[in-house]
Amino acid sequence: MPRNLNAWIDILVIHLATLLLLAVLFCYNTYIAAAALMVWFTTLFFGYERCRYRTEEFDHYCHTVISNVNDASNYAIDNLPQIVILVDRSGRLQWFNKELEKHITEIPEYGISVNKGDNAFWPELDLEPIWGKTGETVFIHENVYFKMKYRPIATKEDSCGLMALYIIDDSPYQLLKRIHTNSRSVLMYIQIDNYNDVLKGLNDAEKNSLVFEANKFIDEWIVHLDGYMRHISNDMYIAVIERRSLDVAIEEKFSILDKIHNLFNTTSKLPITLSMGISVADRQNYIEWGQQAQSMLDLALSRGGDQAAIMMNNQTSFFGGKTKAMEKQNRVKARVMASNIKALMQTSDEIFVMGHHNEDFDALGASMGIARMAKSLDKPVHIILSDMNEGISKIIEMLSTREEYSGLFISNDQLLNITAKNPILFVVDTFIPHLTAAPEMLNRIEQIVVIDHHRRSENSIKNPKITYLETATSSTCELVTELLMYFSEDLKLSRIEAIALYSGILVDTKNFAVQVGVRTFEAAAYLRRWGADLVAVRQLFRTDFDTEVAEAKAIASATMFPNGLIITKCPDTMPNIQVVAAQVADSMLRIENVRVSMVIFQLTSNTVGVSARSNCEINVQVIMENFGGGGHQNVAGTQLKDGTIDDIYNQVLEYTKNFIEEYDNNESNIAEGH
Length: 674
What we know:
42% helix, single chain, disordered C terminus
């Protein structure tokens, strides 16, 4: 019987059915039935022969092709124009094809290590992160890009005893990719921050000379970057460069900022500073590209200027920002903001105010100032407090005994039902959403007003109705006090409100020693006229014995370095440890030759905090931003989770030392005219 059983059975079934029909036909016509029977035998014989022929062909195929398939597949894999290697868990070579020999200098041997030891031919290949996984990666060896796909292979001993690596030379594609990336267009908005202030008091010749020198430096810098620039207004430039040129500027850390800063107005003693908003062309259209560059410029200006803000790969980077923000001598903006805030309050039916989590006197004082504005318009107002506010417990207790402030302070659990149809939320002393006292309120209330004095970062509250941000101001309480001056002639501050606002200014200026300008003293004088009592303020700042002991221990264990850095740890957790750390940092800053003070403290069981202070020379906000924090040029901090206090201490110490060293080197280069 033929071996192709399925076909032969089909033929037999069909012919059997036909034979039954022939039997019926014999009953009616014998002659026709006999002829049909002859045809039936002929088709049966033909089917048998076809099955036999196919069986012989199948046997021939098995002997000539399938029997040699292993040899054929081995030959194909061995001569595949792609590197194929098998490695074990220790990275040793277990098998390879001939293509490997074309890409390494030495003849490979079985058992040698691929990436470890003196004989390794690809030391850049790291197998540990990819072991047991499926995927692809790119590694570089001697300026050659290799694209590798990897697959795990199970053995009898191990479910992933080997790894199969399929590798090709990917240099042409990577080169094309690099050329494409480097040729991407970069749009730059460049603005002189303090154009009018610098030129004030100069005669025409001095103005022309100073502007000429500034234009010359900027033009030479753009030419150095092979870019194109146009002067679009007195203090504004627009330039287009390539991505490769932006990498050069980043590598040079935007040296133009220091060169322009070195141009000095001898009459007003003001340095010239630049701010830049930079956007790299990606997938956005031209409108989005331009808007992105403009928003980066706004971000750089809101952080105090003298820096470049870059949007690249959906991430924002900052360079510069070492210069102290200059205080504006007039209050035009404060008057306009007071008018806008008043108009917005008049349209609302309920007002909420909150500061940052773990409120301090600046957040509380500013909140009470906003609440006084709302009360002067007979609007219901509430101040939202976080669940952690030990630092202001004294003044909260003082206010809780006064009937006029009954119901003013509320907590998160009292915010479940907001019945107001048109509420307004004021956020003071912070702009970072997750640091607010009640972050969920940012999504529940559409109209938001942000008032702050910290340098803004990319992580900020989205689409506020009004943003009043002045980085040159000492405190948020100073900003709110100026708003109170222009809010209404009928507005009257209570004594306790004046004390709260005055306390906020006092805390953030370290008793009028840091970040103080003319307007700071004018705001303090305004509050004094409304009854801010220095004796009462001093009572609020008194600490208990345990706090004093903790501060003394921290200062005693501090380490001071020759570059002006002093750093210490507070490993013990306390209810007011954040306040203790801030006071320790302030105290250490008063030590001779100290420029930067750092305190590392255990905030909670899994959170380590850092409190940083500066004497106005080093920008500690930039340092803290590297660790996910922020703040002001002279006062900043951060909170880090899932790290030990010793590890974070070492990280902060190393980065700060390098930052100060780099700053000192740049300053010496400027002094020498480099």
